[in-house]
């Protein structure tokens, strides 16, 4: 029986995985180029730290509001606009020459990229039955690790091939736009998708119980243990962000010195 169930939901999961890969690649480009850009434009470590703070601030604000944005215009449009915005923001780095300009580009990038994970979680909820959601989430979330691996490998190759640091931002921004074309072509709600047959649709809805959506004030939400589990990432988050923004600098510095 299971062999007759369609597999298109895993194509959607692959799209989410690819989005996480390019998401993490885009955010790491500046750190990988930082040693060269510091020499060219005279950045201090404080200058780079400010750029990182602008990204994090916008990312936090964007995540807080993206859920309401998705509810307003729908997941397909919201995710598409998020990727489009962060793609253009990533490419805008190529036009920057000053610390304020780079900080503004990081602010825009953080705001655009903040939609990735809320959107991906919503898509998994929409496309997978409860028993498969943890697997699908684990698969797309590994894209962040793959992006962290691919970026240090690809960015030097892109810069070397095109002869300028601007090419790294532009090339990876264009990759985002390629992903966007596949998203717009392939994605729709399971009930509306022409790629989903009746058996797969029944499988997607298996075990799903009707729920009533209710808006909760922030203070009331703090009564739930699930909310505290999420907010506990505020403790671990700074460590992850430190590695995300600074580890590649130490790696490139060591490779240059050797």
Give an account of the 3D structure.
With 258 residues, this protein is an all-alpha fold. The protein has a single domain, classed as MFS general substrate transporter like domains (Growth Hormone, Chain: A, Up-down Bundle), CATH 1.20.1250. It is 79% helix and 0% strand. The protein is built from 11 helices and no strands. Helix 1 runs parallel beside helix 6 and helix 6 packs antiparallel against helix 7. The chain is globular and about 60 Å long. The C terminus is likely disordered.
What would CATH call the architecture? Up-down Bundle
Overall mean confidence score, pLDDT: 87
N-to-C order of helices and strands: HHHHHHHHHHH
**Alpha carbon gap, first and last residue:** 59 Å
Shape: globular
**Helical region count?**
11
Count all strands and give the number: 0
Task: Kindly provide the name of the CATH class.
Answer: Mainly Alpha
Stretches with pLDDT under 50, minimum 5 residues:
254-258
Computed over alpha carbons, the radius of gyration is 20 Å
Into which percent range does the helicity of residues fall? over 70%
Supply the CATH superfamily name. MFS general substrate transporter like domains
CATH topology: Growth Hormone, Chain: A
Largest sheet: none
Q: Strand share of the residues?
A: under 5%
Features:
disordered C terminus; Growth Hormone, Chain: A; mainly alpha
Write a brief structural summary:
The protein is mainly alpha-helical and about 260 residues long. It has helices spanning about 10-40, 45-75, 75-90, 100-115, 115-125, 130-160, 165-185, 200-205, 220, 225-230, 235-255. It is built from 11 helices and no strands.
């Amino acid at each position: 029986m299971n062999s007759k169930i369609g597999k298109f939901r895993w194509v959607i999961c692959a799209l989410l995985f690819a989005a996480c890969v390019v998401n993490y690649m885009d955010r790491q480009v500046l750190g990988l180029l930082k040693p060269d850009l510091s020499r060219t434009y005279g950045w201090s470590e404080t200058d780079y730290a400010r750029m990182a703070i602008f990204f994090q601030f916008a990312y936090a604000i964007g995540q807080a509001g993206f859920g309401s944005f998705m509810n307003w215009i729908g997941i397909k449009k919201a995710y598409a606009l998020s990727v489009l915005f962060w793609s253009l923001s990533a490419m805008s780095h190529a036009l920057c020459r000053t610390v304020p300009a780079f900080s503004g580009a990081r602010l825009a990038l953080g705001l655009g990229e903040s939609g990735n994970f809320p959107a991906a979680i919503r898509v998994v909820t929409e496309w997978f039955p409860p028993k498969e959601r943890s697997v699908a989430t684990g698969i797309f979330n590994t894209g962040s690790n793959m992006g962290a691996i691919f970026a240090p490998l690809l960015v030097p190759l892109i810069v070397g091939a095109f002869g300028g640091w601007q090419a790294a931002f532009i090339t990876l921004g264009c990759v985002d736009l390629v992903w966007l074309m596949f998203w717009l072509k392939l994605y729709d709600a399971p009930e509306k998708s022409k790629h989903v047959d009746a058996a797969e649709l029944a499988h997607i809805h298996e075990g799903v119980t009707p729920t009533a959506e209710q808006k909760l004030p922030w203070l009331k939400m703090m009564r739930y243990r699930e909310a505290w589990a999420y907010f506990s990432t505020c403790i671990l988050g700074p460590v992850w962000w430190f590695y995300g923004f600074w580890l590649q600098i130490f790696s490139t510095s060591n490779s240059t010195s050797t």
